[in-house]
Design a protein that fits this description.
Structural class: mainly alpha
Strand content: under 5%
Low-confidence stretches: none
Distance between the termini: 50 Å
Radius of gyration: 21 Å
Mean pLDDT: 87
Helix content: over 70%
Number of helices: 10
């Protein structure tokens, strides 16, 4: 039997939720949508895991002295960050803009900054799952990272996330959805091969100096220096910070919601 409240005790409170609750709700929604998307899971989880296992077990690429997994694991972590914060976010946001989702959200009680913060929290949540999975697989393959480099590795991952997120939103906010899809996948493939992820930059001769300025190479090399030697690669940190400032600054000035 349904209980009947006494007269005068019901006190409705119409209005929007608090900003914190809206951000958390949007982040949870974005995370569920991403994890239910098969193409996004292929890009962010399956491909990095397969590449880590394949190149660790099969001598396809000469990774230099030492265990192959010690070279590959930091590079694959960089690939995971790029796939989630840049490629996946650029494609998803581009099609949300095309289908009018962003336009409708822009007139909802959810502030624009809360929408962007919700997307950022979604990226960080997925990256945490990626790092946990890839680290587990790498440990099973014999990876032995330097414990002293853990703090700087976390700093590099955060800086790389901001840099790639800014570049992804810059692309999604200025190009058509189809162009974003093509360009994001092309950049993903180029940086997978030439960004120091599975192939050492020393194999590219004189072009290595240019490639080291890319965010992928800075993140991969920085993670290797931190996790393999316990070093603090300030140059790579500064490269990522520079990309983060440029990417987010241009995205903030040029992003179009419809």
């Amino acid at each position: 039997m349904t209980a009947i409240e006494a007269p005068g005790r019901h006190t409705p409170a119409p209005g929007g939720a608090s900003p914190g609750r809206m951000v958390l709700a949007q982040a949870a929604l974005e995370t569920r949508m991403l994890l239910r998307n098969g193409e996004q899971l292929l890009l962010t989880v399956i491909i990095p895991t397969l590449l880590l296992v394949l190149f660790s077990k099969v001598d396809v690429v000469n990774t230099g002295p030492g265990e192959r997994v010690d070279f590959l694991a930091p590079g694959i972590l960089a690939l995971a960050v790029m796939s989630t914060a840049f490629t996946g976010q650029a494609i998803a946001t581009g099609f949300e803009r095309r289908y009018g989702v962003l336009k409708r959200l822009a007139v909802s009680p959810l502030p624009r900054w809360a929408l962007l913060l919700g997307k950022t929290l979604c990226v960080l949540a997925v990256e945490a799952l990626q790092v946990a999975l890839l680290a587990t697989v790498a440990f099973a393959l014999g990876w032995s990272p330097h414990g002293r480099g853990t703090a700087i590795a976390v700093l590099l991952l955060l800086a790389g996330t901001v840099a790639f997120s800014g570049l992804g939103l810059l692309m999604a906010g200025t190009l058509r959805a189809e162009a974003t899809l093509a360009a994001a996948n092309l950049v993903y493939l180029l940086l997978l091969v030439c960004g120091g992820i599975v192939v050492p930059l020393s194999r590219f001769g004189g072009a290595a100096h240019v490639l080291r300025a890319t965010p992928t190479a800075a993140l991969a090399d920085g993670l290797r220096a931190a996790l393999a030697h316990g070093a603090t690669p300030w140059r790579d940190v500064l490269v990522l910070v520079a990309w983060a400032v440029v990417g987010t600054g241009l995205a903030a000035r040029t992003f179009r919601w419809e």
